[in-house]
Amino acid sequence: MALQADLYHLDTVAAETTPVFSAIADDLHSKGFSIQHGVLPPHLLDALASQAQQLHHYDPAGIGREQQFQQNQFVRTDEISWIDGTLPETAEWLSWANSLKSFLNRELFLGLFSFESHFAHYPPGSFYKKHYDAFRGEANRVLSVVLYLNSSWGPDDGGELVIYPQNNDDETVVVTPLMGTIAIFLSEEFPHEVLPATRDRFSIAGWFRVNNSTAQRVDPPR
Ligand code: OGA
Ligand code: MN
Fold it and tell me: Which long-range contacts (CB under 8 A, 24 or more apart) does 44-48 make?
């Protein structure tokens, strides 16, 4: 009986996620990025949003990994908290990301291997200047995902994500950080920035990576 219920649950999850996963795959194939709205069930969005607001241990965000890590107030002023999936809502988020990973590997042969993500809080006035999430040839972050967790957001609130598909100012994609909107793009291809927000802005940023394992150590996340 319990097994039957679980199978039914898996079926409904699959039925609900497949159309948006297909739309994401189509967009990534044709243009390298995808903006989707109303992604994830409302109960999960609410749980993630309250988690983001309640967190007490945000760290100042930095640039670069491990030894190269540095804080730079000129580039970004948000604060972050890495997600380990120990809470039910973050576990469900990781499970959603894992389903997306399997789907995209099947459809687009991306070879995505691991996923890392963190909550981000941009206090009023914070920004993240134009940057890439990965550099060509470093073969680390392949696909960037940003999920927004703000239940209302108006034109005066600032804080938009701006993507530069052609790396110039003539053509930009502007994303309002509204609850349930998700932005997904190839990490090496798209410079992007977060404009200064005039109020608290919450999101989850995540990255799918390919396997960088060497003989000495298993692929280290972060
Ligand atoms: C990032 C990032 C975009 C956003 O964390 O690398 O670009 O809209 N975030 O929060
Ligand atoms: Mn980024």
Answer: 44/89, 44/92, 44/93, 44/96, 45/149, 45/179, 45/180, 47/88, 47/89, 47/92, 48/89, 48/90, 48/93, 48/147, 48/149, 48/204
